[in-house]
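fold-stage: in
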Amino acid sequence: MPDFQAYCGTSPPRFAHDVELECAKILDYYGVPWDYEPSSFVLERDADGRVVKAFAPDFYLPEQDLYVEVTVMKQSLVTRKNRKLRRLRELHPEIRIKLFYKRDVERLAQRYHLELAS
């Protein structure tokens, strides 16, 4: 695990996917303060009030007050993630969030000479 300098979290990040690690390296390289999955937002509760659906965006950039979600799913599988983002925006219009799709991540990888796992 790299020794991140711009990481703002309290415990070491445990990335769910290699592409998240690569994005963290880019943020860190450019000195952009970031945190990894610091918040989880409830999207749906059952009749007893138990959480049924929640969403934890990958990154939070405190200086921009912006959440960033990174997905490398095939475009045909992104529908569920888009649905979650729409629901988050309905429930929390004050939350700023940006979704980076596979094509966006591929462009970043090409620009910064990163190797992405398939």
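fold-stage: in (second)
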Amino acid sequence: MKQINRIETMEQYLNESEQAVRELSEALERYEAIQPHFKKLSDYYGSTLWMKDYEDDEAGKLPEDLKRGVLSEDAVYDLLTDHHELILRMSKAITKSIDGKMI
């Protein structure tokens, strides 16, 4: 009975691991594809163009129905911070995996 339980447990681990690897691979593909946009957004934030757009928004020169999350002082900064933390987290996970501590 222990053998059957062990095999069933390992089969579950296999299925969960396959799904997680597949989902991570798909997410990584989306992440890699968006990098040029992320770079442009990062360059735009804090630039003279961003400052002009921000000031024009504050002066009411932009259409009221225009989505302007990019002009908030927190949205892009928070994204950049989250991105940095994610990079650190991925680096630690990769290091653990390479060192054999995860597998």
